[in-house]
Every structure is written in structure tokens, then in C-alpha cells.
Write a structure and sequence with these properties.
Blueprint: H1 10-20, E1 26-32, E2 39-45, E3 50-56, H2 61-77, E4 85-91, E5 97-103, H3 114-127, E6 145-147, E7 150-152, H4 160-175, H5 182-193, E8 206-208, E9 217-219, E10 225-227, E11 233-235, H6 237-244, H7 252-261, H8 268-287, H9 292-303
Length: 306
């Protein structure tokens, strides 16, 4: 959406006044870089403090409802840091918008052992109880949400393998079908039919960030890694770890500490690219042809093993 300097922020001031339990006036707004979905703003309040605001069109308020639910799930694990949600609101009519307000995090100096601590805390999040997040237990989430700008389907399944097939790969393959030849589409269906040949059920369901790459990790107020911009669901912890390796990865210390805290099931390296096929297909769907070669490479890799 377009940002206007004359934006009516009265609903935001009202929400902040209620949340902070004092009259609040916004004295300055500053546009922040980053992100390709929402407008990001730094709000300066009349007491000199700052608030982070994400803004989108009024009809896209569901983006912020989903993000609020995701951040609450991560915070509820008690395992790793994430910004505090101050609230969300919207304004109708001309100049309307929806928005999410978060505590403003000025990246601090990293603590010694930053990546080791990150690895251990992510492993702790993956071990946190998930029974309240999935109706009836198993894998999924209590509502659908978003992976980037795309809808992420979270209807619960008792089996991780069928959940990943039916709620992750299948919708993305259907959404991107126009990029493939008839023969490639047949191979994709064959891959879905044989997915149990490659994936394994986890030892326990895990709360996943869902979109865990370096751009969604910041250094929080305590100098440790905090998670932002979640696409949460309950799944196999391997899927989060695989996503960290898709676009460059973290320092080796992160992976060593994670594996010490939560040893991986044998064969993870053979499953990693299949987990990341979900994200590559989503990028193909959202951003186009640039991701097609990578998608085809992964599909051909597993197709040869069927």
C-alpha cells in the first residue's frame, strides 16, 4: 500500500492510550525499510519512546490477526524472545488501513555465544507443549494463516506425513500447476503419492516458526536472537531447521548447539530439500519464474528415487 504523511493515526493513538494506560500522542512517523508485503513505520511518542507499526490495506487485516496469533504462540512457549504485541486496529473509509503495533526493538549488541544460545532456545521451543494449539492434537494449527502473502492451510492431521502432503505440498503444486508440463505435473502427483517413502513421523509435534530464515531473526533487547514475522504451525521440527538452510543458513555454532539439545532423527539430510520444496513452490507462486529451476531440481531429485 502507499504511505501518506497525512495518515490519520487517531485510531492508533486511541489503541496505544488504552494499552499503555495513559494519554498518548504520536509526534513523528518514520518509514522503515524491509518487507515486501506491509508498510513498516517507526512511531515516536510524546514521551520519546518508540513503537513499531506494520500497516496494510484495511481489507488485509487478517494478515495482522494471523501474526498476532503466531507471536502469541511463540511467546507462550516461554523458550525464545519475540516482540510484545501492543495491539492491532484499523480505520475505515477513505485513507483506511489496518495495522499491527509492536514494541520497538533497537538491535542491541549480541551476547557472547549468541548462536549457541539461539540453537538451544529454538530446540526448547520445538520441545514446548503444543496440545492447546491444535484441536484434537496432532499437526496443524487452530486456524489458517499466511506464508508470506500466500495462504497457509493448517487443518489438523494426526499424521505429519499426510499433513505435509495435503496441507503443504499439494496446495502449492496446485497453485503453480501452470508452470509445469503435463509430464512434470504427473511426476509431482507421483511424488505426493510416494511422500511416505521419504518423510518420517517425528518423535513429538513441535511448534514451528514456519518461515525461519535470517531475515526473520533479530537481536532483541536482551542481546539474544528473537523471532519475528512468524508463519506458525505444529509440525516436525526438521521443517524449521531445513528452512534455516535454504537461504544461506546460520553460523555452525547454531546447528551444533541445536543438535546437542535436540538430536535429529537419522536421515534428516535426505529429507531437507523436500521440506524446502514447500517454500520454493510458494516463492514460485508469489514471485514467478526465477524460482522455477530450483523447484524442478528438487522435484527431479526425488522423482528419480521413486
Amino acid at each position: 500500500m502507499r504511505f501518506s504523511a497525512s495518515l490519520d493515526l487517531a485510531p492508533v493513538e486511541e489503541l496505544l492510550s488504552s494499552t499503555l494506560e495513559r494519554p498518548v500522542r504520536i509526534i513523528r512517523t518514520g518509514r522503515l525499510s524491509g518487507g515486501d508485503i506491509n508498510v513498516a513505520l517507526k512511531l515516536t511518542l510524546d514521551d520519546g519512546s518508540h513503537v513499531f507499526m506494520k500497516m496494510n490495506e484495511e481489507e488485509n487485516a487478517s494478515f495482522f490477526r494471523a501474526e498476532t496469533q503466531g507471536l502469541a504462540a511463540i511467546a507462550g512457549s516461554g523458550a525464545i524472545g519475540t516482540p510484545r504485541v501492543l495491539g492491532r486496529t484499523q480505520k475505515g473509509g477513505p485513507g483506511g488501513y489496518s495495522c499491527l503495533l509492536l514494541t520497538f526493538v533497537s538491535e542491541k549488541k549480541r551476547i557472547p555465544g549468541y548462536f549457541e544460545t539461539f540453537g538451544r532456545e529454538l530446540a526448547a521451543m520445538h520441545r514446548a507443549d503444543t496440545t492447546a494449539l491444535v484441536p484434537g492434537g496432532g499437526f496443524g494449527f487452530f486456524c489458517d494463516n499466511y506464508i508470506g502473502a500466500g495462504v497457509q492451510y493448517n487443518k489438523p492431521h494426526k499424521s505429519w506425513i499426510t499433513f505435509f502432503r495435503d496441507r503443504r505440498l499439494m496446495p502449492q503444486i496446485e497453485a503453480t500447476a501452470g508452470y509445469f508440463t503435463a509430464e512434470e505435473r504427473k511426476r509431482a502427483v507421483s511424488l505426493l503419492d510416494h511422500i511416505g517413502d521419504f518423510l518420517v513421523e517425528p518423535e513429538r509435534p513441535s511448534l514451528l516458526h514456519g518461515d525461519l530464515w535470517a531475515g526473520n531473526v533479530i537481536t532483541g533487547d536482551d542481546g539474544k536472537a528473537w523471532l519475528i514475522d512468524p508463519a506458525v504451525y505444529v509440525g516436525h521440527a526438521e521443517a524449521d531447521l531445513a528452512m534455516t538452510e535454504l537461504f544461506g543458513g546460520f553460523a555452525p555454532e547454531f546447528y551444533h548447539a541445536y543438535r546437542e539439545a535436540a538430536p535429529l532423527q537419522p536421515g534428516y539430510e535426505h529429507r531437507r530439500d523436500l521440506y524446502n520444496l514447500y517454500h520454493l513452490l510458494n516463492h514460485l507462486h508469489l514471485f514467478g519464474h526465477a524460482y522455477l529451476p530450483a523447484v524442478k531440481r528438487v522435484m527431479e531429485k526425488y522423482g528419480k528415487m521413486i
